[in-house]
Amino acid sequence: MIRNHIKISLRNLWKNKLLSTLNLLGLSIGIGSVLTLMFSVYAYYNADSNVVDQANIYYLKTTNISGDSYVDTPYPLLKEISESSPEVVAATHLQGWGMPWLEYGGSDFHERVDYVEPDFFNVFSLPLKYGNRETVLEKKNSVVLTDKVSRKIFGEKNPMGEIIKVDDTLSLTVTGVLEPISPYSTFRLGALASTQLLEDYPSFIARANWADSFTVNYLRLNPTTNIAQFESHIKELAKKNYADPNIIASIKLMPFADMRTDSIPVVKTIISGSIAAAVFVLLIVLINLLNLNASTMYRRTKDIAVRKILGSSKKEIITQFCIENGILVFTSILISALLFLGLLLPKLNMIYGADFGEITFTVANDYPVILFAMA
């Protein structure tokens, strides 16, 4: 019976080639657009999934008496917190300091470099393509590259042990390479070096005091930590050490998951807009499908009447129409998947890839998107 329904459905679709083609085009383009929008949303929410135990990772957010909030604190604060707080499992700065030129093999590369403590990989479980996470930043002149920067400088080869010149004065040894990071991740990294290097720079030392707030701190805390008490302890450290503690209203521990929207508030609006646009396009696709189906109903009355005379039940006629639409929708999903992978996703990467990195799609990692498309 099902085989008979499919044969009749294919015959009817072929008979109404113009409407079938319009339906197929509308559905394919619409579903392809929805897939692209929803995959961007999925990639955003899944971007930091490789950072385990996020519930115990925090960053510091300061609010002054004027009501202004910022994530910067004086550089010495992190050391004071770590040495005086048994609740701290691991802690690190994530400190930018210019964008130095990296030189290798006679070629120069202008890349972002962030300075962190050796504890960085104990705070964040970012996977390494090469290197040992326990020792990767143990030595002062070590540098860890992102996969993107490693490929730009060294191509496909393993760069472990290679020497990179920084601003023609400093030699750093490559001790690790990170696995590819999602462009939607909280982290905007190029290379990671030790904060010990910064402490050799007179310009940095001049600012690394209690009077200047310019560094971002991350803490991994014991799960049993009383957050309110810990914040009170930090406030006491600020009162004791800050050059002018009276301007500080509060220093709060913020969940790591909030960092993306804190640093780029417009991202939340973009994601909400993408979801709304996807729903709107999907509604248009459905309305278009219903309208085109309704336009054929008058011409199908004879067909329905003959089928009823021959003994077809209401259920069988409904099944027939459902199969016809099912064939259209299934075919359009296949076409939209090809459109998404072959045109829309590469176009998205062409627009944003240079600034944020490429978004990749793999069945093993992104199967929820496939389930969404099927649903």
Task: Give a structural overview.
This protein is an alpha+beta fold and 375 residues long. The chain folds into 2 domains: 2-49 and 265-374, no CATH class; 54-260, no CATH class. It has helices at 2-15, 17-46, 77-84, 120-123, 147-154, 195-198, 202-205, 227-241, 259-263, 266-309, 314-356, 363-374; strands at residues 57-64, 69-70, 73-74, 88-93, 95-96, 101-104, 107-110, 113-116, 128-130, 142-145, 163-166, 170-178, 191-194, 213-215, 217-221, 248-255. Strands 5, 6, 7, 8, 9, 10, 11, 12 and 13 form a 9-stranded mixed beta sheet that branches. Strands 1, 2, 4, 15 and 16 form a 5-stranded antiparallel beta sheet that branches. It has a two-stranded antiparallel sheet with strand order 3-14. Helix 1 packs across helix 11, helix 2 packs antiparallel against helix 10 (266-309) and helix 2 (17-46) packs across helix 11 (314-356). The mean pLDDT is 83.
Please sum up the structure shown.
This protein has helices at 2-15, 17-46, 77-84, 120-123, 147-154, 195-198, 202-205, 227-241, 259-263, 266-309, 314-356, 363-374; strands at 57-64, 69-70, 73-74, 88-93, 95-96, 101-104, 107-110, 113-116, 128-130, 142-145, 163-166, 170-178, 191-194, 213-215, 217-221, 248-255. By secondary structure, the protein is an alpha+beta fold.
